[in-house]
């Protein structure tokens, strides 16, 4: 390898590059992408944009069509395209953990993932934990008062779900070492630790 | 005649118990809707541009290019050519886009020219501030036991007397202490989603002040407060920074009106940190004298501080803090800096005052080689007599929970484990926390449904649950029988949530309204039962005659006596001197234990004990959470967070989450909370709790680090850099 | 973010082809760094080439000779792979990552290619602002203490590079032409830029890191040590060191000692290596190696404390590699 440190000349006109402007129907009203330039079939194209296109996202077990731009983050797609507002915008990158969702079962900050990269994947948000019977993690959070203002909580709860999936028998020390990707400003950490321990115990008994 | 009192401890059903927050499930499953989450159809997205310079004159602003960008709906210049800008991030322009992306591209296309002016942001450097003409003498006070003789010059006497007192002191500490400015970092940034319909505005505003902000929005738009509804079911953190509608809250409403469509305007994180409030810094030279027992006899301090461009900032009243020797002098200097203006931050002034002065108290203990706890205890002679016993008992409880006696070692004399040393420190604090004015409307439906309405808000303290607990207790019903409606300016007004006033305020008003409504219902029940209304008791889902418990009606039956129409009663609480429901004034003692790696300067929390009184406890669970949270916020400003400004340009360097250091779950150590509620405290009624426990951590943790290392790390936060720089200076 | 084209190659070759076009391109891996930079308009590419659908880049293969990790393998994928246990320095560097989201979402290639955390850079002042004067005269508490005489005063942010370099990793780089492929020692991926426009990674336009290759461990001892402000390791370390040692007859026969967060590149400390080779690992020799490592340090106005941290990190990494007590909280 010769490291000459000079940028290679840019090439133009990649043959398979395909702008798919003007085709397809405009998606339903959405604050994400303007109607003109909306294209279908982002799932299959090698290159899309910079205008909008219509994609399908699988969120909490349901399939949704929505219009996005290439720059639309998963978080924006969820919040403004689908009104799924559990994942929160807290930091410009993923450093607060506030937008944590599960993508194909793995935790990720929805605000640092492009919506187009999530086509064909299963997205799970905190909303999935609601229902007639509260999810055990959410229930433990409620019982231990592990939310104050609550803005970080949906991301935290999902992070705990992901953590416990890998560490179902986590010790207190492991919990303290393992849940540092989420920021809480009100100071609920002291309630979260016993909440997570409770879930671990419950799982052990069950 | 209704008597507004709380039931005795032995008679309560739910009051003072440990209850889950009724809105906990909504918060823990992401279904609670915050201002940021309100997305009406056809909503446009607004973005604002902050000035890149900390001090400049705006020479020109050109929005033409931005207006031409595809998807841009509107562009507004928010400053005019010629305007002086005094801090980085001050708002220059706003772009509204069909999408957020369009708004962002619009912002990038705005052309503004600036003429830079002199910048000053390093208020810790007092000499530089003076040289730059940025230092201004502030308020001060002298209090001496002796008075000058007839005809004696007061200033001369003051100097002479202080000199004499210091000369007579067995120990004199001459120290430098500091605490840097921090921001609020509300996880939901400031802002709103505004809707315009039929000549009226609805502002979904992220606010600590639901009842007080409608007028602030209506005024500039030429509307009455009636034409404005402020709505906020959930707020993602405020901490004192979200009392006002703010220019951006008004702007969103104005744009919604002008564009005739909903507009969302939330600040970006970096702008929030730059312009939406900070806590003033404080730096102090403190000289204290004590007798051989460690009791402070004399104090002489000068502190300097910044509140932003206008100076101001840290009050003189918190120096010295709680422990006030009979002779003291305090001076202040206010420094004007090109930093965003300060705002109230949980327990305004107190955390700084405590950190700047109870560190000096601990240095007296170090100097005399005495146990810090003993020195604090002996200095109770220097606290108001009415509170001595309280502090003394709280100290005893805290010491036991910390196992202070067994663990104590003199400053710097602990046994090291390799490079790691441990230490303990303590602090004590005070806060008023009287309830704010609040009104509550209680509505009893003929089918037994019970609702209440208050223009209050929930900062995360569990306001809804507190109200539900009070009304459940009042009507003898379970907590989940009460439907609590808060978060709208259309409800009976409540004060802003600040200064630990909410729980006192809403407990007062909901107890008043509840008892008033119950009295009316009891009239009907009494008639039906042939009993005396004054003898009726509501408990266990029934209303019955206390003289014959079999004589009664189930709650639903009682409510059916209302006929077709619900019973509505609106009452105002009456906090104040004559109230038996609430009062003000608390203490609180905290003890911290830390481990410090002398080689790396890393500080780790081992244990933190807080003993806190708050009068009568309404909901133990949320009260404990408040204290736990306060300790963690205290750990934050003691060890992690600070606003970092570029001295040359005045740029706020760490205004993103990734750069603004805050503790995470692994950083908190063991937290131990003890609520101190003996009968005589409970008898005082409800007192606010939000602020007090956030006051002590700075001093307690600094004292613990000092106890571990045997040297004072003078300025908070005590980062590895601060610790290593301190150790290096000592060894030099 | 500025509007951009999204390209989604399905193969390595397609990725190289899609990177080449008339405008600027960025490679998107896990997104934990690039997305924030694009939102702040620090980086404004015309095209983003997402590698998320190139399955071959996620592969991890281990045999007795080599441990090959695809650049799109996540940090968790690597952490959980059994072969990683043979490389304690790498394992420890990954374990120290305190954010489960970052580990789950961040990729090994992205971790190596993330941009500096320098707050002047992140606030839009450029990487080598005013030929470095901005940093030199500003708040440089987190900046470089080594190799900082030129305009570059930031530190390489990678938390795994010191370990990988200590373990003699190489990288397989694809491009600039389809079919082009180069393998080079990982340390050569990093450079200290001399002028604006030159990045801190020595890649040509249209090149990207496809694979990280570790040689067999061959009985070497290794360890990573990070000094942190926080206890949980979510934050970037203040300083880090990784060491790998070949021991013969109780003394160090060969050593690779690499400092992280200390220089614009992962910093191979010749001085520390010279100080330890030929000696046994003891608290005294480790301390001496730490002293040697910082003998050439040139701290800036606000970061002298990092010299002490570098000294301690080297000492503790050596002690840890040898299985001795490191001191500190561990």
Describe the structure.
Chain A has 5 helices and 7 strands. With 206 residues, chain A is of the alpha/beta class. In chain A, strands 1, 3, 4, 5, 6 and 7 form a 6-stranded mixed sheet that branches. In chain A, α2 packs across α5. Chain B has a 7-stranded mixed sheet with strand order 3-5-1-14-11-12-13, sandwiched between helices. Chain B starts with 23 loop residues before the first helix and ends with a helix. With 330 residues, chain C is α+β, with helices and mostly antiparallel strands. In chain C, 28% of the residues lie in helices and 20% in strands. Chain C is globular, with a radius of gyration of 19 Å. In chain C, 64% of the residues are buried. β2 of chain A pairs antiparallel with β1 of chain C, so a sheet runs across the interface.
Characteristics:
heterotrimer, A: 206 residues, alpha/beta, 6-stranded mixed β-sheet, 5 helices, 7 strands, 26% helix, 14% strand, elongated, disordered N terminus, B: 732 residues, alpha+beta, 7-stranded mixed β-sheet, 30 strands, 24% strand
Give a short overview.
Chain A is built from five helices and seven strands, in the order ββββαβββαααα.
Give the topology, please.
The complex is a heterotrimer of chains A (206), B (732) and C (330).
Chain A: E1 39-40, E2 47-48, E3 53-59, E4 62-68, H1 74-81, E5 100-103, E6 106-109, E7 122-124, H2 136-143, H3 153-166, H4 172-178, H5 189-205
Parallel strand pairs in A: 1-3, 3-7
Antiparallel strand pairs in A: 3-4, 5-6, 5-7
Helix pairs in contact in A: 2-5
Chain B: H1 24-28, E1 44-50, E2 56-62, H2 64-67, E3 72-77, E4 84-85, E5 91-97, H3 100-108, E6 111-116, H4 126-131, E7 135-137, E8 141-143, H5 154-168, E9 171-179, E10 182-183, E11 191-197, E12 200-205, H6 214-221, E13 228-231, H7 246-259, E14 263-266, H8 269-275, E15 278-279, E16 282-290, E17 296-306, E18 327-335, H9 350-368, H10 372-378, H11 385-402, H12 404-407, E19 420-428, E20 439-444, E21 450-453, H13 463-475, E22 482-485, H14 502-529, E23 536-539, E24 542-545, E25 548-554, H15 555-560, E26 567-572, E27 589-597, E28 603-613, H16 620-640, E29 670-676, H17 679-682, H18 697-709, E30 715-716, H19 720-731
Parallel strand pairs in B: 1-14, 9-30, 12-13, 17-18, 21-22, 28-29
Antiparallel strand pairs in B: 1-5, 2-4, 2-6, 3-5, 7-18, 8-18, 9-16, 10-15, 11-12, 11-14, 16-17, 19-27, 20-21, 20-26, 23-24, 24-25, 27-28
Helix pairs in contact in B: 6-7, 9-10, 9-18, 13-14, 16-18
Chain C: E1 5-7, H1 12-19, E2 25-28, H2 34-39, E3 47-50, E4 60-62, E5 66-70, H3 75-80, H4 88-95, H5 100-105, H6 108-113, H7 119-125, H8 133-136, H9 161-166, E6 170-174, E7 181-185, E8 208-215, E9 221-227, E10 239-248, E11 251-260, E12 267-268, H10 270-276, H11 283-294, H12 305-321
Parallel strand pairs in C: 1-3, 2-3
Antiparallel strand pairs in C: 4-5, 5-8, 6-7, 6-8, 9-10, 10-11, 11-12
Helix pairs in contact in C: 10-11, 11-12
